[in-house]
Every structure is written in structure tokens, then in C-alpha cells.
Amino acid sequence: MPQLFKPSANTLAKLSVILAGLLPVVVLYAGVTVSRSPYNTKVDIPIDQPIPFSHQHHAYELGIDCRYCHTTVEKTAIAGVPPTETCMSCHSQIWTNSPLLEPVRKSYETGLPIAFADGSPGWTKVNAVPDFVYFDHSIHIDRGINCNVCHGPVNKMQITWKGNDFQMRWCLECHREPEKYLYTDAANPNLSGREQVFNLYMKLQEGAKLTQREYNMLYKNEFRYSPNTKEIEEGKALVKKYGVTKESNVDCYTCHH
């Protein structure tokens, strides 16, 4: 009987089996890569807003306290978005004819929310967690977790972007080892955690000397900072002082009520 397949068919058969086994792995890897890429997470991508609001100008150059606009950030779970009246407390006196601020003036006159020029609802949410996740700003502020730790270097954002991806694995990095993220400002050791959060921006305003950790928070990303042994030991002392329990930190019920 004549040979039906050439010897090369054996090689092709083996190759097809290998590719069939690798295909699910490649597809899964590609899916995870796309899911965690800026294309999907929008990390480091400025978000269009009805007004080109600059945190760098307001918070850093003018030195306006975060709490002037985000009035509930240290009191409740939600930081709060400023109403039009807050914007107009300044802009009824300055930049009163600026075309960029027309949406603010129109909102103030009509009593309707600030909107894009085409009428679509304004203030696009930059940072959000799923509805099944509970996050409390106030307790993090109380423990001294600076705004920039989660939101990135807000003080240098001309147009706000998402500083971190907020995936569960990212949150758990801090919840599993809070000692890496809790610290005391050696230059102001008597400040409470809450006071320390906002004092950092005052130090920036005053041109005070910054530690490497503080520099990372203000200009890079806290999660890319690796504390040394001494800092970790100081962090462990703060974990005990604040009554932070790692067991409850990683309990599903803590964030998923």
C-alpha cells in the first residue's frame, strides 16, 4: 500500500497539538494584558471634562486646600464633588468673562449641573469602584493614607487622570502589608494621620525638604516606592497604634458588604 502521508506530516501533527495546547494560554494572557492595560483601565490617560479643571493650578499653584472642594473627604465614605456655588465663590470675582468657564456661569444661572457644550451631563467620573465594592475615604485619611497614594500625583495634574487601576489585587497589596504604607513625617512627628495627609501639600507649598517617600507621592507613585527596614518597623508601630487588623483587612466582608 502506498504511503498516504509524507514524513513531514508527523512534524505538522506534533506542531498542531502543541499549538492547540498553547492557544488557550495565549488567549488568556492576551485578555489579561488588555484588561490591565491603560486602554481598559484608563490609567495615566487624561479624562475630558466640561471645564479643563487643573488640580496643579488650584491645589499647588494657588494652595487651595483639598477640603475646600472635597468637603466630606475626612468625614464620610465619599470625598464629594464641589457644587457650582463653590466654583463661583472665586469665579464670580476672577476670570468672570473667560470662555472656558461659561459652563460654570450657565450652571450657576440656571441651577442645573455643569454640562458639556453639547448639553451632555458633565464631570466625568475619573476614579470609581464597582457597585459591589465599599470604600470609605474617611478611614483611610484618618490613618494617614495620602490622597496621592491612591489617586496618583494629583498636585501636578493639569487635567485629571486615574493614577492607579483600583483592581482588587492592587488594594490587597496595602491591606495585606499596611506597614509599608503607614508612616510618620519625621519633621512633624506630633501630627495625627489626618493632619499629616494635608500637611504634605503645605510642605510642597513652602518648599520644605521632602523625604524620598514624600517625593514619590507628590511626583511619582507611592506604590512604586519600596520602604527600607526602618520605615517598615515604624509602619508596624503605626499599625498597632491605629488598631489596624490585617485579618479584617483581607476579609471579603470588609469591602464587599
What can you see in these coordinates?
- The mean pLDDT is 89.
- This protein has helices spanning 8-35, 38-41, 55-61, 66-69, 84-91, 102-110, 137-142, 147-151, 168-176, 193-206, 212-219, 229-242, 246-249, 252-255.
- The longest helix has 28 residues, at 8-35.
- The chain has 14 helices and no strands.
- Helices cover 48% and strands 0% of the residues.
- It has three domains: 9-41; 55-81 and 131-255, no CATH class; 83-122, no CATH class.
- The N and C termini lie far apart (71 Å).
- Helix 5 crosses helix 6 (102-110).
- The protein is mainly α and 257 residues long.
Can you give keywords for this protein?
single chain, 257 residues, mainly alpha
The number of helical runs is 14
How would you state the average pLDDT, rounded? 89
Please give the share of residues in helix.
40-55%
Would you report the number of β strands? 0
Shape label: globular
Specify the structural class: mainly alpha
Largest sheet: none
Separation, N- and C-terminal Cα atoms = 71 Å
Number of domains: 3
Low-confidence regions: none
Radius of gyration: 25 Å
Order of helices and strands: HHHHHHHHHHHHHH
Beta fraction: under 5%
